[in-house]
């Protein structure tokens, strides 16, 4: 078969162009260029069909936290496929992997986040959240408390519901988003939007837009606020220290549920199990996916508080997915969590990898093309800027320089993503200091080629 006995690269690319529609891609242009065919991966390195060894500084899509090629994961999946490959949890049945995973997540999640509703992805989990918070308030006799507030440039998924929660205008331009009842306030991106304010003042001003919006709509109309502890796809927007405490205060004051979208930040990325812990947030609901299984199997979910669960549990919540709590995915996620804990991967992030990345990127800050570095744990972005010491953007199309730099990274066998003119890094959490040195050396070469 094509899988076990690869065709030559150009034939694979031709078949790909003929039959495969890629997400978030201009498929016609991609078809002409030919997509790079990734054939295998181990640790932090990908191998393509031409034998290049590529350092994956994006951990796939911010998800392969334990690194590629872990034998234990494949064994657990194979065992579970034989024992019980599938069963649903809709009609008064359950199974061992989903019970074990829900209990484990309740143990790991902070505060009274003790209940998990499973989904197949982050998008599905955020769709769940949208329906869950509205159902919560309806159950409490306040069906009009249904509006949800999010941020501009947020990313919460690609389905109609989660894409509406997201604040990406280029997504809203296609396919009828956002749906009614969802509102977007400023993102706490000091570099791009802070003007003359200090980061601290700007953080407070952004958070206070939430209160303004709540008062405009009426607190009795607002169900929830959703935010990523650190906006990932928006460009690794690390909020000023004043931001999250003020958001938390406003949500409490106006009885608005707080949803922390931990799809990227969860499972160690920021140096704690959850980004909420890094930023001192006590959410009512956390969205999880990606690092939950390190991308080895598609699984996501919503971890909710005792209070939210008790209200939702008192009615029939008519919501769920065929693959909610899929046994193979749940078993794989559990094994992933075992590896994260037993190998002290979060300590490694905090004490070894994040400091090494910080040191390497601080050296890159001298580069004439680099404006600033944004970083939280092992997620970071390099802001490209035309004038040293100024936050002015490049003239012409935003993102054009970032695109060139991304291509130059590719030429260096380094996968970095660009969001506008920010170069994104989110490597597997197991990356070693020596591998970080390789990453930084290749990144510098790509910056040099772009300058
Ligand atoms: N939420 C955040 C913060 C994300 O970064 C993503 C994906 O990148 C999602 C939700 C959507 O997750 P998925 O792609 O699994 O649907």
Automatic annotation (TrEMBL):
It comes from the Bacteria. Keywords: Aminotransferase, Pyridoxal phosphate, Transferase. One of its GO terms (molecular function) is transaminase activity. Its cofactor is pyridoxal 5'-phosphate. CDD domains: OAT_like. The keyword Cytoplasm does not apply. SUPFAM superfamilies: PLP-dependent transferases (SSF53383). Belongs to the class-III pyridoxal-phosphate-dependent aminotransferase family. NCBIfam families: PRK07480.1. This is Aminotransferase.
């Amino acid at each position: 078969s094509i899988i076990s006995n690869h065709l030559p690269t150009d034939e694979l690319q031709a078949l790909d162009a003929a039959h495969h529609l890629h997400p978030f891609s201009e498929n016609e242009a991609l078809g002409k260029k030919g997509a790079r065919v990734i054939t295998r991966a181990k640790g932090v390195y990908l191998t393509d069909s031409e034998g290049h060894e590529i350092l994956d500084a994006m951990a796939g899509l911010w998800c392969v936290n334990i690194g590629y090629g872990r034998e234990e994961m494949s064994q657990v999946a194979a065992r579970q496929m034989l024992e019980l490959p599938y069963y649903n949890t809709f009609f008064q049945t359950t199974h061992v992997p989903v019970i074990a995973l829900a209990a484990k997540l309740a143990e790991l999640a902070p505060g009274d986040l003790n209940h998990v509703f499973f989904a197949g992805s982050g998008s599905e989990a955020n769709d769940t959240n949208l329906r869950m918070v509205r159902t919560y308030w309806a159950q409490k006799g306040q069906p009009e408390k249904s509006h949800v507030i999010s941020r501009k440039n947020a990313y919460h998924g690609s389905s109609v519901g989660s894409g509406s929660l997201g604040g990406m205008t280029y997504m809203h331009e296609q396919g009828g988003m956002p749906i009614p009842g969802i509102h977007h306030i400023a993102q706490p991106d000091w570099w791009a939007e802070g003007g003359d304010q200090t980061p601290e003042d700007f953080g407070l001003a952004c958070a206070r837009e939430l209160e303004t919006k709540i008062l405009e709509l009426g607190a009795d109309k607002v169900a929830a606020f959703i935010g990523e502890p650190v906006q990932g796809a928006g460009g690794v927007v690390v909020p000023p220290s004043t931001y999250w405490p003020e958001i938390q205060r406003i949500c409490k004051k106006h009885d608005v549920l707080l949803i922390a979208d931990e799809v990227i930040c969860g499972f160690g990325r920021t140096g704690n199990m959850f980004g909420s812990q890094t930023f001192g947030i006590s959410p009512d609901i956390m969205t999880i996916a990606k690092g939950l299984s390190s991308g080895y199997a598609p699984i996501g979910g919503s971890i909710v508080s005792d209070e939210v669960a008790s209200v939702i549990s008192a009615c029939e919540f008519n919501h769920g997915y065929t693959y909610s709590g899929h046994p193979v995915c749940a078993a794989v996620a559990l094994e992933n969590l075992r590896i994260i804990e037993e190998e002290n991967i979060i300590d490694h992030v905090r004490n070894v990898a994040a400091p090494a990345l910080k040191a390497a990127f601080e050296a890159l800050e001298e580069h004439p093309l680099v404006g600033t570095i944004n970083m939280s744990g092992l997620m970071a972005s390099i802001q490209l800027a035309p004038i040293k010491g100024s936050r002015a953007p490049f003239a012409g199309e935003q993102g054009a320089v970032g695109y060139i730099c991304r291509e130059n990274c590719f030429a260096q066998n380094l996968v970095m993503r660009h969001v506008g003119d920010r170069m994104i890094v989110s490597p597997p959490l197991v990356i070693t200091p020596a591998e970080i040195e390789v990453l930084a050396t290749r990144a510098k070469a790509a910056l040099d080629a772009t300058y």
